[in-house]
Design brief:
Order of helices and strands: HEEEEHEEEEH
Structural class: alpha+beta
Strand content: 25-35%
Oligomer: single chain
Number of helices: 3
Amino acid sequence: MEIRSLVAEKYSQLEKCYGHCDEPATVRFLNDEVSQVITGYSCHGAYLSRVIVYANSLDLRQSVDTISQTLGLKSDVKEEDVRIASRYPWDMDLTTDDTDRVMMMAYWTQNYRRTKNEDPNRKAIFLCANCNSVYSQKVSDRQVFCDSCRA
């Protein structure tokens, strides 16, 4: 099964928003590629709590670059902000005799950032509810659309 289909089937359930609220966060696909899939979890307030990259194989430097490009914050994502994990058939409730790794994932959350603080006027990263573009605003702002979609 291709990675995009696996991600859609196994990781599309609602998750809790991390670092912003206790509301559910949904997964949104942020690219059209099949071999390297990029997703983001955002709540109804558009807060982008996580970015996850899925691929057959990942290394840390490549993952940091991919997440940085997705967020548009090259200097903000550091290697220590990204976690790499492997997924195996038993992790994903796949019925198979094969025990080899199914895929790898690299994930970043805003909570990992060393610059994160609890100030309600701090800048945070959001995912436009209309076009899936990433934008920045104060955590206390209630806008769920990027500048382009607001116009």
